[in-house]
Design brief:
Lysozyme-like; six-stranded mixed sheet; three-stranded antiparallel sheet; globular; 22% strand; alpha/beta; 21% helix; 4 helices
């Protein structure tokens, strides 16, 4: 589409301006989660840093994180390597991370690309020492999503679009999650963690998710 300005974006699609004409090109993404807890249509690597949820415990909350390795550097392989226990922890790499065993269910890159490391049915090791809704061991009953980013700058519109689309799929697959049961890492580990940080636009995310969920409900009527 020649002449389209792709600088104005909302969570339901690209809003373009071609001269005086306002054109919205819908790029709504939808995802489905299979019975084993895997998201269709995304890259997948199975992290060794996972285990089974406790018997009788299901997915109830969503936790949003941010991460970059090195901090503030984007597009490299080191977050993936961290989750796969393949990170260089020599003195030339990340010696401070030696022995760290962590993972997230999903990692969303700056361009919106999604990679899944742990089935939603399993427990990823993302929350650490944490407390949510009066309960400890938040990994037991949560899904963790890492956004490529830092506390010091904004996230990309492509990341919000992917996050909203995935959140919608999670709400559909795990009805115990709702819009009010989405937390930042800083909410469940205050004083210890600060991500996703002050630049994460909670209002934009929640409004877009609410719009998507309401739209789907309306379509079912």
């Amino acid at each position: 589409m020649p002449g389209i300005d792709r600088t104005r974006i909302n969570a339901r699609g690209w809003r373009h301006y071609n001269g005086a004409q306002d054109i919205e090109v819908a790029v709504l993404m939808t995802y489905a989660i299979d019975g084993r807890g895997w998201l269709h249509g995304v890259a997948r690597k199975v992290s060794p840093n996972r285990d089974a949820r406790p018997a009788g415990v299901g997915v109830e909350v969503l936790v949003i994180h941010s991460i970059s390795l090195p901090e503030g550097h984007y597009g490299g392989p080191d977050v993936e390597r961290l989750f796969m226990n393949e990170l260089d922890v020599s003195p030339r790499g990340y010696p401070d991370l030696e022995g760290l065993r962590v993972s997230a269910h999903l990692f969303i890159r700056r361009d919106g690309e999604i990679m899944q490391f742990v089935s939603f049915e399993d427990r990823a090791w993302h929350a650490g020492v944490s407390r949510c809704e009066g309960r400890e061991r938040v990994n037991d009953f949560s899904v963790g999503i890492e956004l490529e980013g830092t506390d010091h700058g904004p996230f990309e519109e492509a990341q919000y679009r992917s996050l909203v689309a995935v959140s919608e799929a999670l709400l559909h697959r795990y009805p115990a999650i709702n819009e009010k049961r989405v937390y930042g890492h800083s909410d469940i580990a205050p004083g210890r963690k600060t991500d996703p940080g002050p630049h994460f636009d909670w209002a934009q995310y929640r409004d877009a998710l609410r719009s998507r969920v309401d739209g789907m409900r309306g379509g079912e009527g």
